[in-house]
Structure formats: C-alpha cells, structure tokens
C-alpha cells in the first residue's frame, strides 16, 4: 500500500505536470534568465514579482508628498481620517485605484511614495469634482 501511495503521489505532483511545467519554465527562463534569479529565496522572489501583500498604512501616510497642499490642511486631515477608518479591503481598492495594483511593489513599503496634488479647476465648484489619478506618476489629484 505504501508503495502504491508513493507512486500515486509522485504521479499527481510530478509526472502529470511535468510537460506543462517544463513549457512554463522554458518560457519563464527565456524572459528571466535563471542566473539572475538564483540569488533570491523563493519568498523574496515572490515579493519581488507580486509585491508586498501586507501594509503599514501609517507608513504610507508618512511617505506621501504633497503638491499644493500642506500636511495639516483640512482636506488632507479629512482624507487620512476617512482613509484610516476604511476596512482593509477598501484600502487595497484605493491602492489599486492609485497604482493599478492592490499590492506595493517589491522594493518595499518604506520606499513607496505617492503624491497628493491639489485638483485646481478654475471656476468649477470643488464639491462637484471627483478625485482622479495619474497611475504612471502615482499622483492623486484631490479637489479641496
């Protein structure tokens, strides 16, 4: 019985996926040569490719750069007050809105910076404007 179980497990986890995994590995190594990836542990490589799955949201607030705003402006204080009350899922949705991904890049949360800039549209009522972002430049345009 033990030999049967060992052979069955080997078939399921190794032999049955050998061809698809080989094709995947060949394609992966074509774009990402192995010599560059061997220096990473699997966990480090996963973070590098997928980003950090957990966050220190107060560190995110600390690293923000302001354009047209000051850290103590009422709009900014209100923004962070509301943001920190959001559930984790909504905070990740904000991150996806800002960056296009719900994870912070593999460089680490302490290096992640974005800008909150004043959305200044002449003659329009700021209460009728919605925030928008430039995902390439990591800028959140926020009306006063």
UniProtKB/TrEMBL annotation:
Catalytically driven reaction(s): S-ubiquitinyl-[E2 ubiquitin-conjugating enzyme]-L-cysteine + [acceptor protein]-L-lysine = [E2 ubiquitin-conjugating enzyme]-L-cysteine + N(6)-ubiquitinyl-[acceptor protein]-L-lysine
Active site: 136 (glycyl thioester intermediate)
Domain spans labelled HECT: 1-144
GO function term, MF aspect, one: ubiquitin protein ligase activity
Record-linked Gene3D superfamilies: Hect, E3 ligase catalytic domain, Hect, E3 ligase catalytic domains
PROSITE patterns: HECT
InterPro entries xref list: E3A/B/C-like, HECT_dom, Hect_E3_ubiquitin_ligase
Pfam hit, one: HECT
Any one GO biological process: protein polyubiquitination
Keyword annotations from UniProtKB, A to Z: Ligase, Transferase, Ubl conjugation pathway
EC number(s) reported in the record: 2.3.2.26
Top-level taxon of origin: Eukaryota
Protein name: HECT-type E3 ubiquitin transferase
Gene for this chain: Herc4
